[in-house]
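Record 1 of the preview.
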Amino acid sequence: MTHARLARDDPAESWARGLLAQSAFWGPVPAPEGIRRCRELLAQAAGNRRLELTALQSMAGLQAMAGQPEAARGTVERALALAGDMGENRVSSLARQFAASALALAGDPAAAAQQLRQGIRVLERQGEAGMRSNLTADLAHVLHRLGRPAEALQVALASRAIAAHDDLFAQVRWRGAAARSLAVQGRASEAERLAAEAVEIATPTDMLTMRADALLDQAAVAAAAGRAGTARRAAEAALALYRAKGNRPGGARAESAAR
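->
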């Protein structure tokens, strides 16, 4: 941002500010501090719609994490309205991924699935695979929340088919979703292997919610295999990460799994 400002490169400075908003959602910044950061960035947007959208979509997810579901839904509506003004493209698809994360955290997985499917359709028409693998992996997890493990497995494998080998998010998320489905089918060995791989890939990162989600997937797989002690330890590790992020809905799920 400093170099862009010195060069009077407004688009580059705006892009960097947008990354600050996204990192507040994905990274280790606690949710309340992330909300504050996004509000500051909104105030600095000065009519820059791209920066406004990035701040709004990140803030929606953070509000849902902080246990503010109604505020999150309101922010989602603002973000999607702004994204709609920009057309159906990669930017709007990313906004739908963030909206889906917020809606799922706010307790509305059906609405989350709708947003993800719409974003995936746009990316398919454009022949885009990178972002699509991420949205597809997220959709697999939402399908589990909706009680559709067989469909979740198909979608998880679709993400695997197009995910780049170094796309850590997609590689973690499709494995976790597939592992849950395989556990339901009684394929414990495959499920445990994939769940362990997801945790291993996620652990070196500072994406606290992604790491916690992977651990919670591992806990579910272990519980299905009758490994109560392993399940409890994984759930407790997930709980610690959710608490560090200030992710209250995730923490509630982890507490339930740890019992």
